[in-house]
Amino acid sequence: MARKTKEDAQATRTALLDSAEHLFEARGVGRTSLADIAAHAGATRGAIYWHFKDKADLFNAMMERVALPMSQSLLCADLESAADPGQTLRAAILHAFACIEGDPQIIRVLQIATLRLELTEELGAIQQHHRLMQTRALEKISEGLHRAYQVRQLEPAQNVATTALGLQALFEGLLQQWLTSPGRFALQATVATALDVYLKGLGLTPLPGPCDQGLRAPAHPPRTTGQSARALRR
């Protein structure tokens, strides 16, 4: 019986997240209440507060459910032991964009976060979470550039923290442009070209010979969209 109760609770949580995705996309985050989400999922208001502290907590859970590939790919990149850390960093970023471009759910959630989110005081925790993820990604990019200069025994011409921020702004800007109209350009191919131009400008062209890219496939949790579990409710 205890196992059944746990399965019911997980099914309810999944249904609530599915409904949040649907309503956030249709109405925007600010114009969707927790009561709206509970009603759409066929759950009680008590159920939604059992699983989520508030709307910001639910939104962050929705983002985490798709295992945001940008942070996952970067955090899985082994920059310390890679033969060419610059190319390892490049491979990690491109792996992330391949995941984004090929997954409709990731695209939908990123579009909600980019185009359908109106930040208010109520949703301040969303902005805090986003800044945390950006900071972690930036630290990994800085590490990759620093290691790339080390293995080449070169002194960077510019401050590494500044060039890392520029690189992050480059691919995040391309992503934001693409999300406004997916299909407008080939995302991964465009990012690859932009990365190559940027890294070449930093003097970080690929080292000769075979290189261990040092990239482990990110561990994405299994998707639970709730289609088979909608009959189960808390």
From TrEMBL:
Gene Ontology molecular function, alphabetical: DNA-binding transcription factor activity; transcription cis-regulatory region binding
Q: Which domain of life is it from?
A: Bacteria
Which parts of this chain are annotated as the region Disordered?
A: 212-234
Q: Which SUPFAM superfamilies match?
A: Homeodomain-like, Tetracyclin repressor-like, C-terminal domain
Q: Which UniProt keywords apply?
A: DNA-binding, Repressor, Transcription, Transcription regulation
In its keyword annotation, does this UniProt entry include Nucleotidyltransferase? no
What positions does the domain HTH tetR-type occupy?
Answer: 10-70
Q: Which stretches hold the DNA-binding feature?
A: 33-52
Q: Where does the signal sequence lie?
A: none
- DNA-binding listed as a keyword: yes
Pfam families linked to this entry: TetR_C_2 (PF08361), TetR_N (PF00440)
Instruction: Provide the protein name.
Output: TetR family transcriptional regulator
